[in-house]
């Protein structure tokens, strides 16, 4: 058993969300690795569009606190127009270096169509600009409606990839942080959030 705690942030508001179901498999992998994990379901929070002139809007302080207190984070998103969801973008906009600097982050993207590689690439860039350590291993669920039967993931290889992401998130949660990136040095807007 480890003291590591992982928060999986679900960037989907759908009631029947394949992103949420995929993150549940990741959290199974987290628990298999002896750590604790919880879902941060953005449906449950009042997060108005981030306004940099106003601090503490809605439930933003609680969302930010939960991400900051986690030892590692997994970000899950549906792919919308080749990128990640606006819901997840808004939640991340409330965060900054205090929440992500040196933190291990895993990535999951789900698509109704083909492989959601651009959503994963865009999230990776955002996390690197906050000086997070993004796992090289990532998980994608293409053609999501054909991968699930109800709540059950039928594709074993995707299920294993999601579980491995959970285990690796735990395994690398205490990795020595990289030196600051060029992007993080240029991202002054995230400083002190």
UniProtKB/TrEMBL annotation:
Cellular compartments per GO CC: cytosol
UniProt-recorded Gene Ontology molecular function terms: FMN binding; oxidoreductase activity
* Residue ranges of domain NADPH-dependent FMN reductase-like in the record: 5-144
User: What cofactors are annotated for this protein?
Assistant: [4Fe-4S] cluster
For this protein, the record's InterPro entries field holds: Flavoprotein-like_sf (IPR029039), FMN_Rdtase-like_dom (IPR005025), NAD(P)H-dep_reductase (IPR050712)
Coiled-coil stretches: none
Enumerate the Pfam families for this protein. FMN_red
- Please give the PANTHER family that the UniProt record associates with this protein: CHROMATE REDUCTASE, NAD(P)H-DEPENDENT FMN REDUCTASE LOT6
State the similarity comment: Belongs to the SsuE family. Isf subfamily.
Spell out the protein name for this chain. NAD(P)H-dependent FMN reductase
Which species? Halopelagius inordinatus
Q: What is the lineage of its organism?
A: Archaea, Methanobacteriati, Methanobacteriota, Stenosarchaea group, Halobacteria
């Amino acid at each position: 058993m480890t003291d590591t705690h992982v928060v999986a942030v679900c960037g989907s508001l759908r009631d029947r969300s394949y992103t949420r179901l995929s993150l549940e498999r990741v959290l199974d992998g987290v628990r298999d690795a002896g750590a604790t994990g919880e879902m941060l379901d953005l449906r449950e929070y009042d997060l108005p569009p981030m306004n940099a002139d106003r601090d503490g809007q809605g439930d933003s302080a609680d969302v930010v606190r939960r991400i900051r207190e986690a030892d590692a984070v997994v970000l899950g998103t549906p792919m919308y127009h080749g990128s990640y969801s606006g819901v997840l973008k808004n939640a991340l906009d409330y965060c900054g270096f205090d929440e992500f600097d040196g933190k291990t982050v895993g990535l999951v993207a789900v698509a109704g169509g083909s492989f959601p590689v651009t959503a994963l690439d865009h999230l990776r860039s955002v996390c690197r600009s906050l000086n997070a350590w993004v796992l090289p291993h990532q998980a994608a669920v293409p053609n999501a409606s054909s991968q699930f039967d109800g709540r059950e993931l039928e594709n074993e290889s995707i299920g294993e990839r999601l579980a491995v992401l959970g285990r690796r998130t735990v395994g690398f949660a205490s990795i020595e942080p990289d030196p600051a990136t060029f992007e993080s040095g240029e991202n002054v807007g995230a400083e002190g959030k």
